[in-house]
Amino acid sequence: MSAPPEPRVVSVPPVLLEVRDRVDARLDQVLADEHRRWSDVDSLLDEPIDRLRSFSVNGGKRLRPAFCHLGHAAAGVGGRRADDDTALNDTVLDAGAALELLHVFALVHDDVMDGSSLRRGEPTIHQHFGELHEASRWAGESRRFGEGVAVLVGDLALVLADGLLTGAPRAAWDVYNELRVELVMGQFLDVAFAANRSADPATSRKISLFKSAKYTVERPLHLGAALAGRFDELAGAFTGYGLPVGEAFQLRDDVLGAFGDEAVLGKPVGDDFREGKPTRLVLHALDVAHRQQLRPALEVLDHLGDPQLTPAQVVAIQEVLEATGARAAVERRIEDLLGDAVDALAGAEVDPTARNQLVDLAVYCTRRDR
Q1: How far apart are CA 208 and CA 275, in angstroms?
Q2: Is 304 a domain residue?
Q3: CA distance to 65, 69, 165, 236, per residue, from 173 (Å)
Q4: Cα Rg, the chain, nearest whole Å
Q5: pTM for the predicted model, two decimal places
Q6: Residue 199 domain-assigned?
Q7: How far is the C-alpha of 252 from the C-alpha of 327, rounded, in Å?
Q8: Tens digit of each residue's pLDDT (9 = 90 or more) over 189-242
Q9: Which residue range forms the structural domain that includes residue 39?
């Protein structure tokens, strides 16, 4: 099997750093206000809001707000710019913060469904509250308490996200609502796909489409364009760029989840193996192993989905992914998708500065190390 092309890890684009700082400050302000308001009602409400605030502000790449901002900035062609420059205005800032709170909602609930204990190098919300319940010797089952509180914390993030979009135009709300429905449907497919141990690559691609490509890139770009009043003109170009970048982003996530550096990622490598996630890497390896009757490889892959997978078994699965050419195939696919995304912007009537920033962001999404 041929070796994978070595991805060149790139630095974080300046636009992403700028958006991150502004969005972090806005999230901190919103959640600090909520903390003050509900702390006066009952001190028991301090801890869930504190955990939501910490989870929301400390970590996260802020890709969705960045794509929303660039979708808005890119719409500033021919004097139809929504502002005088490409700086992040308050309307787009609130939309970006809403996307991040929506993402927190999804992550908190996803961690409950997956039974994950770590997120961004810290205990997950349900893990934290389960441990708090146990340490406090409260009544009932600690696990159920932790998961119940996590569901409520996620729900709070969703409601606050909606509040930040109160003044958005109807076109923006149409995009946002579609994004939320797609996210839920993609998550259901993901849960069902893992449970029934399916190896259908078509369903795997649908999951990637709804949980990553549309959710992370395409719809945030559409939201920015809708806020600028140019959704109809730019939706096609942003789809042509956003879907390949989003798919490549998910494939990079799969590679990092299988082969990344735990110290950099802030979560255990191999969790996808323990959850039995049918990633493109795994499906490719299974296909090759079945077609070539590689019994040792199939015996190793048969352990996928075992929550008690040992470090040695994780290494064995990694070796199979390498030996079957799965990693090489996914790396080549990522590079092809990057080329498709850049080509899609070539003929679009967008602000040239924003176009260049979108190219930089696409490169970062496909070659990042975390």
Answers
A1: 16
A2: yes
A3: 16, 16, 8, 18
A4: 21
A5: 0.90
A6: yes
A7: 10
A8: 988 887 887 778 888 889 889 988 999 999 999 999 999 999 999 999 999 999
A9: 14-367
